[in-house]
Amino acid sequence: MKHPLKRLIRYGRKYRPLMWQAGTCSVLNKLFDLAPPLLIGMAVDIVVEQQNSLLAQWGFETIFGQLLILSVLTFIIWGLESIFEYAYDRLWRNLAQNVQHDLRLDAYSHLQDLELSFFEERSTGGLLSILNDDINQLERFLDIGANEILQITTTIISISVGFLILAPTVAWMTMIPIPVIVWGSIVFQNKLSPYYAQVREQVSLLSARLSNNLSGITTIKSFTTEAYEIQRLGIDSEAYRQSNYRAIALSAAFIPLIRFAILFGFTATLLIGGVQAAEGQLAVGTYSVLVFMTQRLLWPLTGLGKTLDQYQRAMASTQRVMNLLDTPILIHSGHLYLDQVQGAIELKNVNFAYGNGVEVIKNLSLHIPAGQTIGIAGSTGSGKSTLVKLLLRLYEIQQGTITLDGVDLRDIQLHSLRQAIAWVSQEVFLFHGTVGDNIAYGSPEATPEEITHAAKLAEAHEFILELPQGYETIVGERGQKLSGGQRQRIAIARAILKNPPVLILDEATSAVDNETEAAISRSLEHITQNRTTIAIAHRLSTIRHADCIYVMEQGQIVEQGTHETLVAQQGVYANLWQVQTGSKPTQTPHLQDFTE
């Protein structure tokens, strides 16, 4: 597996010009930042040597002339340092924002293309942790850390070269701590890496817990489990805290250890360099430069611990984001775009099993003529809803073929396929926004008149007008401000407004009262005209007028025909119909049935 930094650089290759600009400004800023000790040394040289100073040798003989030149140089150097500081700060921050923006969009886009089984195996909170916290962690490093690494590197190289030129006999004493510091940094980096990987894993689990609890706050309140959830959250939060403690214990030891190496180099330069200056072996101005430069060289290295800390956190986060981007997409889009969809659907010898290997659909063959309304009935777990998800290619079949107007679904562009189908799920999801926005979801160009017309067909218009702001009423997260029946009618209106060739109603009336169900059933007569409709229902009254009804049991079609035909057969469908109409009493379980 590639190092996360290499993967990040490869990902951001389109930003290489911006990286080069930011990096160049960082280096130039540090070079001008290192100039003041040289200016101080030159000032000392002018005062002490006067007519024999370095500037005097360049032709500036008067003290005033030398100091004037030095003042002009100081103004220029400080000005350029400030300009390049502004430039690198702006460039690095812009780079961080650009990478953060693109990485979040690419990660989310990739996430949307993954199959449903991926989401079933992972928590929403864990994925949110990657999209938010991990990407933000990377942005914080690019904001500050990358510049600091460049500037520390520039400091080491430039001052080392300067020392070797000015005072090679003293320079080695200053250089001795650098290998120790570099070696220490590598050791700490290797030791910190697994600690921060664990920190990122723990924060993901903590985010998953919080997200899950907030989604289930009604259940928590109704079962009075607030104290229990606080206890569970405390366990996850404590695990996160402990993982941070371990990382902090190691990273905090870095700076104190580095200080001892710095102390040795600075003291040696101060002592031995001072002796050589007193004996005339080293110019006083040069000695001043050495003392100041030693501090400028070694002292910033104490900040290497903080930078290293940021780097390791960022690399742990980068690893998680890149792993998400590397997750293979198992359901690939075809290339055929459908212009005119009639709606004829056929399944031939279809087999499907979820990840546990248990077959849910078994050698199923089914033909649905274009424009007809068919009903699918069966007991819970018979595979009815799975069949719908296979039609939308939310899952991929293992064997057999499914065609739409004679074209294999795997050859059709996914967007084109799903655009031709409207699905009203039994688990209605509404987005935080207005009623009108939710009806128009998927049809952004719809006019208010079209939205209202769709609501009327779904028997939703009247209750919407009774809401505080009508169609502008905010429904709340997941539509929590509305009843289950209201949410389902809005979902039906949303499907109607899409005006698809194929309409799928998956228990679309399961959460409505009998009066509303009757109203929706009346409206279905208009909704289903000139389109293929698949209605899955436990309430058989909603599909009794279908052109054909298929009865599923254990992933197979066991009966088919019209309502009257199936009732007359006295089979599975007839038994379900008799139970629902009350002509056959349901068996009441005894108490011991629940305790055995």
Automatic annotation (TrEMBL):
Keywords tagged on the record: ATP-binding, Membrane, Nucleotide-binding, Transmembrane, Transmembrane helix
Pfam families xref list: ABC_membrane (PF00664), ABC_tran (PF00005)
Recorded superkingdom: Bacteria
Keyword hit for Transmembrane helix: yes
Annotated membrane topology: Multi-pass membrane protein
One Gene Ontology MF term: ATP binding
All copies of domain ABC transmembrane type-1, residue ranges: 20-313
Lineage: Bacteria, Bacillati, Cyanobacteriota, Cyanophyceae, Spirulinales
The protein, known as: ABC transporter ATP-binding protein/permease
UniProt source species: Spirulina subsalsa FACHB-351
